[in-house]
Amino acid sequence: MTTATTLAWQRRRDSAARFWKQYRTHRAGLVGMAALALFVLVALTAPLTVGSDVASVTDAPGNPMESPSAEFPLGTDRFGRDLLGLLVWGSRVSLLVGLLAAVLSVLIGGLVGITAGHFRGPYATVVMRITDWFLVMPTLVLAIALATVMSRSLGTVVLAIGVTIWPTTARLVRAQTLAVESRPYIERAKALGGGHWHIMSRHVLPNVMPLILAQTTLMISTSILAEATLAFLGLGDPTVVSWGGMLQEAREAGAVSSGDWWYLVPPGIAIAVVALAFTLCGRAVETVLNPRLGVSR
Fold it and tell me: Is 42 helix (H, G, I), strand (E, B) or coil?
C-alpha cells in the first residue's frame, strides 16, 4: 500500500471518528439509531424467529380474529395467522422497500442536481422545469398512477416511489453544487484543463455527498410511509407480507367497525416508530454534517 493510499485511509478513519464523536452528542439521534438497530435485528433474524411459513394461510395455527392471549400476544388475523409473526416478517419487506426506494430517489435527484448545477444553460433550464413539474404534482397521486398501470410487485412499488420523490433532493443538490462551483479552486481546476467529469466527480461530488447521505436517511422514512400507503390502497404485492398490507387486510376484514384493535394498532405503531427513527437519525446526521443548521439536540 502506497503512502498516499495510507494517508487517504487515515483521513477517512479520522473523519469517521469525528463524525461519531459529534453524532453521539445528539440524544434524539442516538434514540433513533437504537430503535433502527432493533428493527433491523428483528428483520434479519425473522427467518429464525418466526420462519417463512408464518404467512401461510393453509397452516394457520389459530382461529380467525382471536384476541391477544398468551399463545398469540397480538392475536390472529382473519385467516388465523399469528399477527406477531406477521408483524416481524413484514418488517423485512417494509424496510427493504423503503431503503431501495430512497436510494433510487436520491440517485436520480443527485444526478439531476449535480448536472443541472454544473452545466447550467438550456439543459439546466429544461431539467429544472421538469423538476418543478414533479414538485407541484401530488407525489401520492403519481405513485398510485404508476403502481396501477404496472404489474403489482415489489419492484413496481420501489419504482413508483423512487421516481416520484426525487425532486426535493435535486433542488437541494443543485443549490449546493452552485455554491461549490463558485469557489476559487474550481476555477483553478478548469484553468488547468479539468474536464466536466473531473470537476463533477473529484470536486463537486465529495462536497455534496454529506448532503446526499443526510437526504437518503430522511427519504427512507418518506419511502416507508409511501409503501404503507400504496399497500393499504391495495396496490402493493399481494404475495408478500408488509405492514401496509396488514393494515389493508385489517380494513377488508372489518377490523375498524368491529373494534378489533389488535389487527390495526401494531402495524400502524411499527410504521410510525420506524419513520420517526429514520427522521431522528437524518436530522442528527444533517446537523453534524452542517452545523449551521442549528437543529436542537
Answer: helix
The per-residue DSSP string of 105-117 comes to HHHHHHHHHHHHH
Q: Tell me the backbone φ, ψ of residue 98, rounded to 5 degrees.
A: -60, -45
- The DSSP H or E segment spanning 226 is helix 205-232
- Cell digits of residue 199: 470537476
- The CA–CA distances, whole Å, from 42 to 69, 190, 240, 253, 286 equal 22, 50, 17, 27, 27
- According to DSSP, the residues that pair with 193 across neighbouring strands are none
Residues 221-260: pLDDT tens digits? Answer: 888 888 888 888 888 888 888 898 888 888 888 887 888 8
Sign, CA dihedral 103-105-106-110, equals: positive
Q: Which three cell numbers stand for residue 276?
A: 420517526
Which residue reads 473529484 in cell numbers? 202
CB-CB contact of 289 with 210 (8 Å): yes
Q: Lowest mean pLDDT of 5-9, 22-26, 118-122, 198-202, name the range.
A: 5-9
CB 160 within 8 A of CB 150: yes
Q: Going by C-beta distance under 8 Å and a sequence separation of 6 or more, which residues neighbour residue 46?
A: 88, 89, 91, 92
Residue 103 CA to residue 61 CA, distance in Å, equals 38
Distance from the Cα of residue 287 to its chain's centroid: 19
Distance CA 105, CA 99 (A): 10
By CB atoms closer than 10 A (0-12, 13-18, 19+), residue 15 is exposed
Mean pLDDT of the chain: 85
Dist CA 225 CA 244 (whole Å): 9
Amino acid at position 49, single letter: T
With contact defined as beta carbons under 8 Å apart, do 166 and 112 qualify?
A: yes
CB 55 within 8 A of CB 86: yes
Distance CA 147, CA 139 (A): 12
